[in-house]
Design brief:
It is built from 16 helices and 25 strands. Among the domains are: 233-342, Succinate dehydrogenase/fumarate reductase flavoprotein, catalytic domain (Flavocytochrome C3, Chain A, domain 1, Alpha-Beta Complex); 423-523, Fumarate reductase/succinate dehydrogenase flavoprotein-like, C-terminal domain (Methane Monooxygenase Hydroxylase, Chain G, domain 1). The strands form 6 sheets. It has a 6-stranded antiparallel sheet. A 5-stranded parallel sheet has the order 8-2-1-12-21. The chain has a 5-stranded mixed sheet with strand order 22-20-13-24-25. The chain starts with a strand and ends with a helix. It is of the alpha+beta class.
């Protein structure tokens, strides 16, 4: 069998590669950036698992229920069940390979995170992604030295090689030498979210351009739930993007307020007394938008962390405090920080089934680029878990394929003309960003969405568009069309012209390229006999 090819070397890609190598198979790990610069390194707050080390009686079933509820019941319950029930074993594996999570005499320390009533989030101060990635990178190097993982650093995936709707491999470009190579075999896509469609608005790295996703969409690969974009309530603007102030700050006692009639109003605590500042992110972001629009309120919304104890700052949040000091010249232990919602996560992406298979045979996807686990809104602490678990499941599915050797093609050096096909001008990127930002905000309506479609169609009339620019615009159009088709409010998708949830739309939105862009709804699978029933 040809090697399994993995596009992307963040958490999902590394997890897939290590799973393949541990099983005795071989893989190619292709990435434009080294793993040390992947989006996953930026993850701060933690990773969820119902370990119950805090004595609160937490269980994987409660983790499952919270994840389904947080996602407004749009996720595949069978996939989510696998995620929640495997989470404790994943944490144990991460500890085994040397991940330095926060510990005490009783074991792993857990913290509160949004949308969950029990302490379930494993963490390492506010650098959890960095320490997990470091451990996985070191673990992967063992298999790189034995040849089971072959790295292709500074390589860009140009396109998927397919025949009769079957993925046959990848076409990749060495960005240092301009050499184009063909890699045969099954493919796992782990290219991250669509941050490059929203530069300056997103906490994620804009090195995740979304170009590979646009390429796949143009090839007819189905995407799902593209309308669901998570706005994290506590971000601050820095040059070129937004900086995240981790949800861990609110988990440790940070409080949101706005000036109302000249006095501090801790609005989340008044409006949602049970969870307050730890309500799901979509709820907080909407409430922030609403209070900012009130005549009796004067912005900005501020995050008050001055009540957090000195011990907590030193033991749990020292790196977050230093980051805020460095970028904002503010000591958050002494004065509040002005915050505003910023795009943080894409719940939608490449449609995959429970085994992370896409609509194209021999093509799999995992991590933020795939639509799985999070439904209409992701819970904090579930992104890294979903990437690690999803990478593992995608690898298991790819390894089950029958052995088949595909013909290798000869490498060559790319011409200037062919390279132009993959070029995206700053002007084109900015135009698309503006349309998507205006259309797909925290609060939406049909008029704005239709105006966005009109503006997109005008962009497509430009005869000077490169092939990649056109593909990106079409994927952007699919995002707006998905939001237009969902005539309800659910999770991160809020339509002021349809402000209530409608059970007729408790389905997955699917978009695909045919003669044009097609949008349809797909039923959510029923939960099979569960762990809860078996136990």
């Amino acid at each position: 069998m040809n090697k399994i090819n993995i596009a992307g070397a963040g958490l999902a890609g590394l997890s897939a590669a290590i799973s393949i190598a541990e099983a005795g198979f071989s893989c190619n790990l292709i990435s434009l950036q080294p793993s040390e610069r992947a989006q996953s390194v930026l993850a701060e707050g933690g990773i969820n698992a119902a370990l119950n080390t805090m004595g609160e009686g937490d269980t994987p079933e409660e983790h499952f229920q919270d994840t389904m509820k947080g996602g407004a019941f749009l996720a595949d319950p069978n996939a989510v069940e696998g995620l929640a029930y495997t989470a404790p074993e994943i944490i144990e594996k991460l500890l085994t390979i040397g991940t330095p999570f926060q510990m005490d005499g009783k074991g792993v320390v857990l913290r509160n995170f949004g949308g969950q009533k029990k302490k379930r989030t494993v963490y390492a101060k506010s650098s959890t992604g960095k320490v997990i990635m470091t451990a996985l990178i070191d673990e992967g190097r063992k298999y790189e030295s034995s040849g089971r993982i072959t790295r292709y650093p500074h390589h860009q995936v140009l396109e998927i090689l397919s025949e009769d709707r079957i993925c046959r491999g990848l076409k990749i470009l060495d960005t240092y030498t301009d050499e184009v190579q063909y890699l045969s075999g099954p493919v796992i896509i782990a290219c991250g979210g669509l941050n490059g469609f929203f530069p300056e608005f997103t906490t994620g790295t804009v090195a995740n351009t979304g170009d590979l996703a646009a390429e796949l969409f143009s090839e007819g690969v189905e995407f799902a739930n593209l309308e669901f974009i998570q706005y994290h309530p506590t971000t601050v603007a820095i040059p070129g993007k937004r900086m995240l102030i981790s949800e861990a700050a609110r988990g440790e006692g940070g409080r949101l307020f706005i000036e109302r009639s000249g006095k501090k109003w801790y609005f989340m605590e008044e409006l949602y007394p049970e969870l307050g500042n730890l309500m799901p992110r979509d709820v907080i972001s909407r409430e922030m938008t609403r209070v900012l629009a009130r005549d009796d309120c004067e912005g900005p919304v501020c995050l008050d962390m001055t009540g957090i104890s000195k011990k907590t700052w030193e033991k749990k949040l020292s790196d977050l405090r230093e980051e805020i000091r460095e970028y904002l010249s503010i000591d958050p232990a002494k004065e509040p920080v002005s915050v505003y919602p910023g795009i943080h996560f894409f719940m939608g992406g490449i449609r995959v089934d429970e085994g992370h298979k896409t609509s194209m045979e021999n093509l799999f996807a995992a991590g933020e680029c795939a639509c799985q686990y999070h439904g209409a809104n992701r819970l904090g602490g579930n992104s890294m878990l979903g990437a690690i678990y999803g990478g593992r499941i995608a690898a298991q599915s790819a390894m089950k394929l029958e052995h088949e050797n595909y013909e290798e093609k000869t490498s060559y050096h790319i011409s200037a003309e062919e390279k132009q096909d993959f070029y995206v001008s700053p002007k084109s990127a900015a135009e698309l960003k503006g349309i998507l930002a205006d259309s797909l905000g925290i609060i939406r309506n049909g008029d704005d969405l239709n105006k966005g479609i009109e503006r997109i169609d005008n962009l497509l009339k430009d005869n000077n568009l490169t092939a990649m620019e056109k593909k990106r615009i079409l994927l952007g159009k699919a995002m707006i069309l998905s939001a237009l088709a969902r005539e309800e409010s659910r999770g991160a998708h809020f339509r002021e012209d349809y402000p209530e949830a409608d059970e007729a739309y408790r389905k997955t939105t699917v978009s695909r390229m045919g003669d044009g862009i097609e949008i349809y709804f797909r039923d959510i699978p029923e939960r099979r006999e569960s762990h809860e029933i078996q136990n």
